[in-house]
Structures are given as C-alpha cells and as structure tokens.
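Give me the fold.
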Amino acid sequence: MSKQCYILLRVIGTFVMIFFLLEFSQFSFTYCQINDSVADDSEQRLQSFTTHLSEFIDLARTNNPLLKAANSKIKAAFASVMYQRSLDAPQVGIEFMQSPIRDFPIIFMNQMEVDYSIQQMVPYPGKRNAMANAEQKRKEMLDMDKSTLEQDIIRSVKSAYYELYLIYRKMELNSENQILIKNFEEIARKQYETGLGKQADVLRAQTELASLTNEEIILKQNLKSAEAMINVLCNRPVTMKVGFIPEIEPEAVDFNLDDMSHLSEIHRPELKSMELNTQMKKAELYVAQREYYPDFMVRGMYRSMMDNRDDWALMVGITLPIAPWSSHKFSSAVEKTNENVFQSEFEYNNMKNMVSSQVLVALTKINSSYERLTLNKLTVIPKAQQTLESAIVSYQTGKQDFMLLIDIERMLIMAKQEYQMAVMNFFDSQAQLERAVGLSIEEIEKYLKGEYK
C-alpha cells in the first residue's frame, strides 16, 4: 500500500471516529449534568410522579372489592353489638285442655279449659352489656383489620407502580442501546469498506441489535402485565392504560430506628388490632364469669274455664349454674377464655418483635439502595462512559477488538440498569417502611418535625 493511500485511509478513519463521537455524545448520561434548570425539571417530575401515584392509591381505596367487603363486615359487627344488647323474643302460647276426643281434629270447641300464656327469659343484670362490650371490641378490631388490608393494598399498588417505573426505564435504555448499536454497525461497516475492519464485526453488531429487539418485545409484555396488576387493584378493566411514568431522582431520607420503632408501636394497625383482640378476649372472659350468675324466667298465664271462674297465674324461675351436672360447663368456659387471653397477649408481644424487625429491614434496604444508586450515578456510570469512549477511539485506530467494544457497551448499559434498579428498590423500600410503621413517608416527616397530630 502506497504512503498516500495509507494517509487517505487514516483521514477517513479519523473522520468516521469524529462523526461517531458527535453522534454518541447525544447519549451521555444526563445525571452528571446537574444545573439549576435540571434541578427544577427534576423537582417537577418528582411532583408529577407523586401525584400520578396518589391517583391510583385513591382509586384503590375507593374501588377495591376487598375493602368494600371489609366495610360490610364492619357493619355486620356493629349490628351484632345491637343484637347482644337486646332481650330474647318472648314466648306466647295457647293451650286447649280437656277437649273431647269425639271432636278431633277440631280442637277449638267444647274444651273445658283454655290457657293463654306469655313468658320471657331475662339474663342476670350486666350479662347483656358484657356480651355487647365484647362485640364492640370485635367491631373495633375489624376496623383495624380493614386499615391493615388498606395498607396492604396500597403497598401492592406502590410495588406494581414502581415495577412499571423500572420497565419504562429499561425500555428507554433498550431504545438508547439500539441506536448505539446501529451506530456501531455503521462504524464497523465503514471500517470494513476502508479495509480497517472485518465483516464479522458488522455481523456481530447485527446480532446484538436482534437481541435488543427481542428484549424490547419482552419488555412490552412486562409493561402490560404491570399495568394489569395496577388495574386489578383499582378494580378497573385490565386493558386500561396507566400512562407514562417519568424518570425521577430520589431524595435522601434520614430516619432513626428508635423513632421508627416508636411510631410503629403507636400506628401499626396490626398491633392495634391485636391489642383490641386481647381486650375482646378479656371481655369474653368477663362474660364467661358472669355465667355463674342465674338467669330468670318470668311467665304469666290466664285461664279461661268452662265450668269455673276464670283465673290467672304468675311464675318466676331461675337457672342453677351451680348444679353439679352443669357447673363443669361454666368452669370450663372460664378456663378456655382465660387461656385465650394469655394466647392473645403472647401473640401481641410476638407481633411487636416482628414489627421491630420489619422496621429495621426496611431502613437497611433504604440506606443500601441509596448508597447503590449514588455509587452508580457518580462513579460507575461515568467511568463506564469514559471506558466506552476510549474503546471507540482504540477501535478506530485498529488497537481494539470489536467484540471487546460490545462488551464495554454492555457494561455501560448494565450500570445504567443497575442504577434504575437501585432507584426502584429505594422507593419500594420506602413503601416497605411505610407498611412497617403504619404511616406514609409524608406523615413520618411531619412527625419528625413535630407537625403530625
């Protein structure tokens, strides 16, 4: 090869390298370009993100069938309170006595006596109120169970929403990567046409592009699945669109374990429910103890006599719980309900320990996720970007293998995906902390500022 041809090829190669670098500069990682306008835009996107998510949370609270079922259960429990406060229905009777057999089956004539009676069972004073109090505690416990269910649904909505957020970011990275590989293919093709590259490099770029196209198809399927999950939780048609979720930059949080544990003991609905369950068991124990007291039966009767003067009768009776053949029934009931109280107290203490553990795990995940996303944003991605740019230059001069260039490009995309995964995990860990404490992040921050009531 003549010296003039060699110089010409080097000039062409240099031109191609400059052209590629200008094209590639479009894809420089925007997180490293922080200025006032970007910060304002980031704040607006975060506000839009929060508002959009809140809309689906409100829809789930209003429309979710499980919450509606919980409301019906609470109303039924309230009706049960009124039921326990009421007396049993009185018994009214009429008795035909000494009716002639010849008149059978007509018994309404020629009888010697007709007795009219009414009787009422009256529980010992305080029994009905005790039973109603136990039902009231059960109703309050169901209120807390509904709050638990509501928080579970909100947690599920947020998890699905954050998963959808990650899918959108992966789709954006996939699109960016496809454009980058197309530029690689163009460079490899020009290198091959000028005699500085190999045809295998072009084929490798095309293979990589096909793989990215296949990944795009899978991501679109995952997008529909995530949208369907959100729609199910909100009781909407599964095919409805959720809408685009913009990229956001998370803000660091600083929560203390002691503060969060204290808040969880106060606001965690499961703990409130189990505390009310203990109170209900104690109320049931009081009811069982009152069963040792007798109930009363009052009966009034009017007798219509054929041959004698009409008269009336009054009867008062009581139950005998202390009878030897029935006392064991009531003592066993007391023993049973007493053990139920102990059981509920042990379960409450175990739940407190579980909640403390959940708070610790959530805080640890928040901190580790933020450290990961910060490391990727400030260190890993910029270095991977520089490595790729250096590899492109080396490939242009024939000092770098094309396959190594593809590997470096994959490392950059993986670093960006890892960053987006860390962002998703950061928000999901915040939702986990909200579930563990029983308050939203906004409510927790108000508490730390002394503004929460």
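Confidence is low (pLDDT under 50) at residues 5-9, 14-36.
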